Amino acid sequence: MNTEIANLPVRSSTSAAERMRLYRKRRRGRMRTVRIQLHVTDIEALIRKGYLDHKSRDDRDAVEFPISSFVDDALTNQA
Q: Helical H runs in 3-55?
């Protein structure tokens, strides 16, 4: 009997499975993910308008929420 295989740690899920699970959760919540390109001046505008802290300008994850907030504000104020 091969004991090497039996001693390997068992993963609960793969990263692909986790991504799919999160994707399905977003879809159920009627959320859509889009990729956009931002120019440096767009990020600077988010900082000037108070949506983003200047220290976080190069952090992709930190930029995500301010963009969402900006879009939400723009769409809410239009009505």
A: 3-6, 15-28, 40-48
The count of domains in the chain is 1
Write down the mean pLDDT value for the chain. 86
Average pLDDT in the 37-49 region? Answer: 95
Domain boundaries, position 57: 35-79
- Class of residue 52 by CB neighbours under 10 A (exposed 0-12, middle 13-18, buried 19+): buried
In a domain, 23, yes or no: no
pTM beyond 0.85: the answer is no
Cα dihedral 15, 17, 21, 22 in deg (nearest 10): 20
Whether 48 is covered by a domain: the verdict is yes
SS3 29: coil
